[in-house]
Amino acid sequence: KVVNISAGGMRLDSDDVRLEKGDIIELEFNIMNFKCQRVLGEVVRSLELTRKGRGDEEIKFYSHGINFIQIHRVQKEKIFSYVFHHPNDKNREIYLTIMVFDIPNPKIEN
């Protein structure tokens, strides 16, 4: 579930998927009937949190901060326009397809 989105990144909450800080993920989502594809993001924060369920039970979930590291200019503009024109829309929902993979960080040798 996308909790917050901006032109620079997003916050994702999940009941069952935990990403690790440093993971690189590929995102695909729709904003105002515009499909954003092949957006790469880096997990910059990964927290295990709890919330109240029915009654007083504690339900564990994972919260992830994602910075976009590769996004097309047009996609970024669509996100910015969406956030600017719908800042308080509590009913908005963005469906994501997320692919998680590990991209080695090449070390630069002198």
Keywords:
110 residues; mainly beta; six-stranded antiparallel sheet; 1 helix; 6 strands; 12% helix; globular
Give an overview in words.
This protein has one helix and six strands; from the N terminus they run E-E-E-E-E-H-E. It has 110 residues and is mostly beta strands. Strands 1-2-5-4-3-6 form a six-stranded antiparallel beta sheet. It is globular and about 45 Å long.
SSE map:
Elements: E1 2-6, E2 9-14, E3 24-31, E4 34-52, E5 58-70, H1 73-85, E6 96-101
Antiparallel strand pairs: 1-2, 2-5, 3-4, 3-6, 4-5
Average pLDDT metric: 80
| Ends distance | 43 Å
The side-by-side strand order for the widest beta sheet comes to 1-2-5-4-3-6
Low-confidence parts lasting 5 or more residues at pLDDT below 50?
none
Into which percentage range does the β-strand content fall? over 45%
Total of DSSP H or I helical runs spanning 4+ residues? 1
Query: Shape, please?
Result: globular
In total, how many beta strands?
6
Query: H/E order of the elements?
Result: EEEEEHE
Quick structural gist:
By secondary structure, the protein is mainly β. Helices cover 12% and strands 52% of the residues.
